[in-house]
Amino acid sequence: MKLTFAGAAEMVTGSCFHVEAGGRQVLVDCGMFQGLPEVEERNYEPFPFEPRDIDWVLLSHAHLDHLGLIPRLVREGFRGKIASTVPTKEIARIMLMDAAKVQEEEENGPLYTADDATVALDRFQLTGEYGETLPLGNGMEAVFHDAGHILGAAFVELRVEGKTLVFSGDLGNRGKPLVEDPSYPPKADVVVLESTYGDRVHRPAEESVEALHQALVETFEAGGNVIIPSFALERTQEVLYILFKLWRQGELPRCRIFLDSPLATAATKIFDKFADRFPEPARKLFRKKRDPFDFELLEYTLTRQASKRIPVDDGRCIIIAGSGMCTGGRVLHHLRRQLPQPNSSVVFVGFQAVGTLGREISEGALKVEVMGSIVPVRCRIWKIDGLSAHADQPILTDWALNADPGQVYLVHGEEAGLATLAKKLSDHGVASRIPRWQESVSV
Ligand SMILES: [Zn+2]
Question: Which of 8, 5, 58, 10 is closest to 31 using CA atoms?
Fold first, then answer.
């Protein structure tokens, strides 16, 4: 059996693993490379396999860096099937159509079009619940297990030629309000493990809620607005859930909340639909029709006109908008207006990658370029890093040790995360390797 690391090798994006065994070819994920220009160039490089020979794509979850190249795979001849969990299939629809729209506006020519994305969505032909065994033909079987992380996210168990391979996908943090803790893996011959926070220990979530609360109180006392750049999936819904809880407890200062992101709005509708999959106590709230996604302070601004009518001149507005790292989207308009206002705040609730506007602002730049104009940064900047949707080092290590693995391949991490996690695993007597991009190993 041959395993090829077609992405997420020595970096956090472009997840794609190719398995060739028993006369079948399977991909686990087919994600987009994101970030610095030299990383994004890889989206245009030939795949290290023949797309038309791929029988299955097993999709761990619907983040772009895990599914964003599926339409390109289709464009280049993929005729196989895609398997995922039920929520992932639904989220994939909005993510791929949104990605195709972005591609069609791409100056250097699109990687794919909306037509390719539509064909790709037709290939989602098999769904499985967590724990269900899915036959892939020729004796090959796959099982999706609950990875936490975001709604529908799975880690993938692949059984072939008498061996068990486990691909972690993105593993979630513990104690999150809208997803369960990640389940433990079965005994595995090979584990392909994400290492995003392989060198970090997260601070408790309560500290983050308290920091957000403090940012709101201080900003509104000063008469300003709060801009929260947010990822459309999970983070936005989690922030809404926190705001709803603060409001219910009478701790939220007088304000209006605007969710100013069509993609996040579409995602929130899907979350609403799968509310019975939330852990307690969130599930109980929804059963009682106390809906954190629909309460009196919250308004959805769907059109550009509605977005422009947000009454920022009055202050006391919380505006949640994408993109999460300020690389595009409506958040740019809000930043252009609010960054120069000393009484307003920008609150970062997620990871800001190198090279993004979000990283620049969060690292204290005094002026930045937003949509072609130079804007002074006079507002307050808050960084809240305890809301991570990713497992930290103790969770990753504990999880991997539970698989009692013969071999671990560390992927989906930057240099420090990979190296530190490798050391940690070796302290526990587990051998690991950090594969290079497009490297193949035999299993
Ligand atoms: Zn993810």
Answer: 8
